[in-house]
Amino acid sequence: MADTIVWITGATEGIGLGLARNCPFESARIINLSRRDHPDYESVRFDLTKPETWGAVRDHLAAELAAFTGKRAIFIQNGYYSQGVGLLHKVAAAPYENSVIANVAAPIALGQAFIAACPPQLDAGLALLSSGAAVSPLEGLASYCAGKVAIEHWAEVAQRERESRGAGPWVVAVRPGGVDTAPVRALADWDPELYPRARAIRDNIVNRLDIDSAARRIWAALPPPPGKAVISFAEPPAEPGFRFGGDRVQVLDDGAWKLVYATKD
Known about the structure:
The chain is of the alpha/beta class and about 260 residues long. It has 2 domains: about 5-235, Rossmann fold (3-Layer(aba) Sandwich), CATH 3.40.50.720; about 240-265, no CATH class. The protein is about 35% helix and about 20% strand. The chain is built from 7 helices and 10 strands. The strands form 2 sheets. The chain has a 7-stranded parallel sheet, sandwiched between helices. A 3-stranded antiparallel sheet has the order 8-9-10, with no helix packed on it. The chain starts with a strand and ends with a strand.
């Protein structure tokens, strides 16, 4: 049995693929969780937009972790649904509903399944891919932004629960920064009447990291330091200022950034 087992949702492409092929643990057993099988990695099929398929992942995690005798187990929630993009008064209902299910509900449901399945003293960790969109409202990406806010707040709660009980996997949300992926390139070609930022994304593609470089710096940051629930490689908004009727972006000593609450003068 391998010393390390790693589950990655959406390891067939993008950052998920980069994380799979740059895993720093020699001979790790890597398992792709997605709608499609991966030719190089063991795969379990499920669909983020279909809650009735999530049980396959939950059952798989429970069975594998109950029998696991290796050194460490890591779950990376990376996959997301890239449709449902559009201004709220124009976006089609069906893809928008799928986006809410896949990008808001699925990550925290799957995260809970992993935490519940982990033996208390196992060296285990859960990393959830977030985004600078968690603190920067982006027109046309309302459900995506909401999902990233949910992920980060959930990670904070999960971390506090771990500290309170003195056991369980570490949990962290990771903002990977700008990465050149197929879904991002698809966004660049989106109708600007639906997604006003399409042109800006297209113009900035050259400044984005490739998936392997992004994956290596994510792996290098794991596990997170004690007490840290969010790791950010994303740039803070260009104009921090007040947002959300009183919130301000604060740049932290380690270069990460977050929203803090303040009262306008």
